[in-house]
Amino acid sequence: MTSPKTVLITGTSSGIGLAAAVGAARAGWTAIATMRDTGKAEALLKAAAEAGVADRIQVKRLDVTDPAGITACLDEVVAEHGRLDALVNNAGAAQVGTIEQSSVDDVRAAMEVNFFGVVAVTRAALPHLRASKGRVITVSSVGGAVGQPFNEAYCAAKFAVEGFMQSLAPVAATVGVNVTVVEPGAVASEFVSNLGLDIPALLAAAGPYAPALEAYIGRTRESFSNAQTPAEAAAPIVEALTADRPAFRIQTSPWARDFVATTLADLDGSAVQTLTGAWVR
Predict the structure, then answer these.
(1) The domain 6-196+229-265 is classified under which CATH number: 3.30.70.890, 3.30.200.20, 3.40.50.720, 2.60.120.1440?
(2) Ketoreductase domain: which residues (predicted)?
């Protein structure tokens, strides 16, 4: 018998990453579920046990901002399993604010996790994926296609991820590696709650931006009340793992497809400005 294919997934302590790890294991993969703090693995391990796939999920520590740790983790995976067939870049961190009131260090921190972390893990994984003719699947966001108010740093990082992957895809294909980006919309997960935002304090400090921020927060709360579940958002990731020829860009819901379509057809930028401008008025 051939050994199960192996996928390494970043950011699996909650949300889409957790659901993707369980979904991949249910599809027959060995899922290397990584997270920065393995002390937060309880929810994943419980979900894996309930799904009957605990034996196909292995938790490892991986901080996507630690180059030495990335290399060590990948070397360990290949030494233990003999192969790496896929990488799912999922780890990320939100950042809410506008540039006049955020520091450049805040922006750099968002780019470090959401963009440079993806670059670093992908770079380290590619030699192994070339050997297996594998694939890179990166969880972007509809915010990687449509810039959104008070998400300047986050969307900048996701735009950078999509440009990086779109440029990498044809080159990687020449050595047998498929590249895909997955664009979720609102997902009911801990990603937003993990921000730990004190909304009243944020509004009090917003100065001239307070009315716009209040409108944005109201709209965002409404959108998350109709959010996808993490399992729904993770399902296209699992499909991309197993499809013969997955598309380069995959949205996780009809709403996400319609939203991304706005920018792809918006040659002069006016449609997106009209759409998102309504969010802050």
Answers:
(1) 3.40.50.720
(2) 5-185
